[in-house]
């Protein structure tokens, strides 16, 4: 069994030197796109891949750096390739993703009036393990981000935690490592300021050593090069590099 991750981008919502924090999870010959932000179509083009190469897409929450590329994805697949993308997403996001984000661009009288008319929708509930492919299972965990905006982190194969955008949750992280045996944490990382809607580097640095040791940092600002070497045991992941998980 082979599991790898290639981030299409590792930047935060306002980064200009990095694409949006979206990733390709490669489980043997199955590819899952985790989030599809505004820059995802260009990032895919940059690494020489097409949305046709993706078996399914998963959405963590509704912010443009995570869903802004879905209109292009859906229209390209439908009108250029005659395909439909399988879309895994928390059930609470199905209605707002359509009504608040995609309807404006994708609605078509008598043809496309809901998310299920343009995607193969697979709603998910927290606490249930979903088998997406022979060597890939996924569970969603509701994690705090912005008041009133549902956001969900991921448990991959019951051994890797992939954070959505989230505020600092030390108890969850410690529990995942010490009680659940998680062996890797991919975490969003705000390099400066206070962690109002994201987790800051300073907060992650305050975690115990056994937790820090398995953290990889993503969703960072253009200031990232100034922080290389200043993150303790935690390493930045680079966009487009394929990491064996
Ligand atoms: O109360 C708020 C709400 C939002 N924001 C910014 O908007 C961005 C939206 O995408 P993001 O979730 O990746 O990051 C968010 C932040 O950079 C913020 O700083 N404070
Ligand atoms: Zn984001
Ligand atoms: Zn967000």
UniProtKB/TrEMBL annotation:
Ranges where the Metallo-beta-lactamase domain occurs: 20-219
Catalytic function, reaction form: 3',5'-cyclic CMP + H2O = CMP + H(+); 3',5'-cyclic UMP + H2O = UMP + H(+)
Transmembrane regions listed in the UniProt entry: none
Top-rank lineage group of the source organism: Bacteria
Short name of one Pfam family: Anti-Pycsar_Apyc1
Protein role: Counteracts the endogenous Pycsar antiviral defense system. Phosphodiesterase that enables metal-dependent hydrolysis of host cyclic nucleotide Pycsar defense signals such as cCMP and cUMP.
Protein name: MBL fold metallo-hydrolase
Species assigned in the record: Paenibacillus odorifer
